[in-house]
Amino acid sequence: MILLTTETVPGHEIEKALGLVRGNTVRAKHLGRDIVAALRNLVGGEIGEYSEMMIEARNEAVNRMIAQAEKLDADAIVAVRLVTSQVSTGAAELLAYGTAVKLRESSGDKNAASH
């Protein structure tokens, strides 16, 4: 599955837009992570436990979006975006969304070839 943040796919034309596809996941903080995070917060620096949690959440959301696009028999997802939001104290949602499309090989610029 081709995933792009752009609205076009180099070397291809969009034959058909199949619609919005999305995947999301909600992750809650973990007491053990919170204790480590609080200690790290005192001394500064990256909170690796939360970074790892967000990486896992991002991967899960993107994989769910891809699964939805595969059900539509899409070749690619364009205009991919990732959004996070707090849904409650200690829990965050990560949403991945984009437009599922069918592609065809680009025929190239026919006018350029004739000059």
UniProtKB/TrEMBL annotation:
Give the UniProt family note: Belongs to the UPF0145 family.
Its domain of life? Answer: Bacteria
Put simply, this protein is called UPF0145 protein G3I74_07255
